[in-house]
Amino acid sequence: MNVCVLGLSHIILIAMVVVPGISNDLQSCQAAQLRCHARSGCLMALSNFFLHCQAVIKGDTKASCPTECKHALVSLLSTEDNAGVAFINCDCHKGGVCSERKERVAVCQNEVLESINVLREDAQPVSCNLARGVCEADTSCLAALQYYYDHCSRLFSGVRCTARCRNSLEILSRQPHASKLRTCKCDGTEDYDCEALKVNTEAMCFHNKRKIRNDINSIPDSGDDLSKESDEPYNKKKMTARDKKKAKRRKRRNRALTNLKKAQRDKKLKEKKSTQRKTQKSSSTKS
User: From start to end residue, where is composition biased (Basic and acidic residues) (predicted)?
Assistant: First the structure.
């Protein structure tokens, strides 16, 4: 991310569409765009750039940069191998449609620089749209995000967080470009119920982990500080109605096993006595 910040200080932002039959002076931009197309994350960021920056590219917005366009540019600068940066920095030479679009998109330069700075680890939370766009711009993070979409449909509906959904969240959390997703802010511009999803995720997927962590932190350092009063509620809570039923079943099973073993011992003892009597009778008959 620091490379993007340093590189952008002398960048002139550009946008171009490759058209068959263009002149040779656009080959550098054409090569940069083809390089971006070869990476699914960069391709996603480039598609979002042309979609959300359309008004800027056409010249409809000259004074300010729309938020959607700013986020799209930040995502494009976040792609792996600097493929997006190479596209933004490609050489248009002089004149033509490419240079004209470069000048129009330059209105976003200062705001994009500010947005790049908020992606640092120590920066404040960013909007969820921006956090998602940055993740989508990285091929590995995009794949993890798609895996999350595929396995968390019940979470989106507010039903439950399945084991596969929790696993997909673990995979997503290990992606460097997904670091802002967990703490992102909902601003109401999302195409889904952002607030409900965040609440469901925290409650259904992370609640148990937080509870265990809080319980561990509440344990005193010394075992001598544990009083009988603190033990009693724990023991009462431990023996629930379900636990009592299990204990009764255990007692019945143990009693049945004990009776079975006793019956087997009695049977063996009777067989032994019967064998001894037969032996005594046979010996007395011979004598």
Answer: 225-235
Calpha distance 119→137 (Å, rounded): 14
Q: What is the pTM of this model?
A: 0.58
pLDDT in tens, 44-64: 999 999 999 999 988 887 778
Find the Cα–Cα–Cα–Cα dihedral 68, 73, 75, 80, rounded to 10°. Answer: 170
Cα(29)–Cα(102) distance, integer angstroms: 12
Dihedral-angle region of residue 188 (phi above 0 means left; psi in -120 to 50 means alpha; beta otherwise): left
Contacts of 74 by beta carbon, 8 Å cutoff, 6+ apart? 112, 115, 116, 119, 130, 133, 134
- Chain centre to alpha carbon of residue 211: 20
Strand-pairing partners, residue 127, are 185
Closest CA to 183 of 194, 168, 193: 194
Element of type H or E holding 182: none
Write the pLDDT tens digit of every residue in 127-146. 999 999 999 999 999 999 99
CA distance 81 to 42: 10
- Local structure of 70: helix, strand or coil: helix
The CA distance from 124 to 183, in Å, is 9
Bridge partners, 185 (sequence order): 127
How far is the C-alpha of 169 from the C-alpha of 109, rounded, in Å? 34
